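Example for tutorial group B:
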């Protein structure tokens, strides 16, 4: 039986060209390499799963390549590149600061820094989760970080920049990594699905991308999960079933009921949703996001804020044309009040039902007023 490799590792970028969603950062790093303007220390910061450690490894591989390509990409053929690809490079040192956060660990690192690289020009030290270092460890690291040997380059990676001492930050070039856009994630998932021989509906990949919440690694993990469930054909229906996501259709139908003042229909649909196992609090939060998406769909200037597939975007445009702005503003107020009350109420279903009734009364009350 073949050993399965998760997509996050199997399709991990190996060059700057293959990094998704971080064009500004990869361009800057490339230019620094081509112009021989390498800093002594870099700080890569941003949300989880967006490519911080991956870019650090690509950067380390590239600056040690003996036959650098004109576009600042590694050749993948020299001894340094082969050693890196095989995982036996002595020029790249990785330290997990979450489990190696003491002064002694940093002193060991400082001792290693003095050793010259055997192959290539630079010894690169990648310290992941650097915010986990103790204050004493940071202080022990300061002098070496400020005046390292010419062959040493430090790359610090963190998800929580605010926890790092200002004295450390002032010694680094800081690169802020972006959250992945839904569109970029969907395109990357399409590429992987094609390589794996998987037929995937765009709406299904859109759900995966939204569930990942801006983290490419999370998106690939979810992708592997739904492939295990669906097989070689990913459909929207199967994906929302596996991920326990409420179908967009419910939100569109509920909004129609609210706008038309159909209390009975709205409450019956609420009962159907609850019987499917969905939590009332999650439904209210989802409705708030839905009203927001309908609102931004009303104006061509803000429609770009809508991160959904083309087919769903068309439905939002249709509903935005039917609903008034006043209705949407009032609906968002009702949702906000319900969210604040929901956690405190004992009868949580009643809290949601009252919110639904108030949503159905918005247009009627305006007519009376």
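The residue assignment follows.
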């Amino acid at each position: 039986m073949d050993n399965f490799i998760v997509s996050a590792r199997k399709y991990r970028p190996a060059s700057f060209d293959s990094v998704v969603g971080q064009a500004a950062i990869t361009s800057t790093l490339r230019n620094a390499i081509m112009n021989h303007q390498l800093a002594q220390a870099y700080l890569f910061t941003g949300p989880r799963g967006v490519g911080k450690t991956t870019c650090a490894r690509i950067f380390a591989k590239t600056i040690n390549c003996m036959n650098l390509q004109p576009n600042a990409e590694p050749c993948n053929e020299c001894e340094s590149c082969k050693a890196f690809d095989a995982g036996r490079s002595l020029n790249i040192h990785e330290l997990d600061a979450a489990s190696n956060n003491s002064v002694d660990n940093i002193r060991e690192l400082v001792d290693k820094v003095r050793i010259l690289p055997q192959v290539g020009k630079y010894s690169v030290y990648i310290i992941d989760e650097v915010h986990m270092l103790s204050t004493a460890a940071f202080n022990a690291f300061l002098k070496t970080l400020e005046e390292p040997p010419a062959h040493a380059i430090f790359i610090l990676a963190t998800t929580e920049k605010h926890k790092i001492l200002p004295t450390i930050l002032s010694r680094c070039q800081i690169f802020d990594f972006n959250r992945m856009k839904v569109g970029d994630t969907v395109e990357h998932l399409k590429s992987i699905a094609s390589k794996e021989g998987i037929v995937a509906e765009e709406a299904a990949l859109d759900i995966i991308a939204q569930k990942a919440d801006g983290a490419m690694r999370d998106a690939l993990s979810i992708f592997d999960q739904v492939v295990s469930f669906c097989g070689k054909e990913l459909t929207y229906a199967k994906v929302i079933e596996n991920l326990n996501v409420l179908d967009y259709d419910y939100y569109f139908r509920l909004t129609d009921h609210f706008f038309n003042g159909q209390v009975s229909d709205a409450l019956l649909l609420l009962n159907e949703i609850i019987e499917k196992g969905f939590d009332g609090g999650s439904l209210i939060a989802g409705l708030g996001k839905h009203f927001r998406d309908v609102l931004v769909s009303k104006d061509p200037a803000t429609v770009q804020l809508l991160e959904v597939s083309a087919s769903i975007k068309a439905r939002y445009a249709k509903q935005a044309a039917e609903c008034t702005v006043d209705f949407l503003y009032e609906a968002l107020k009702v949702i906000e009040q319900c969210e604040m009350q929901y956690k405190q109420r004992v009868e949580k279903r009643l809290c949601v039902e009252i919110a639904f009734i108030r949503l159905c009364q918005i247009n009627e009350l305006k007519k009376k007023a």
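The beta strands are 41-45, 92-96, 123-128, 152-158, 173-176, 199-200, 233-234. Compare this with the pattern of hydrophobic and polar residues in the output above.
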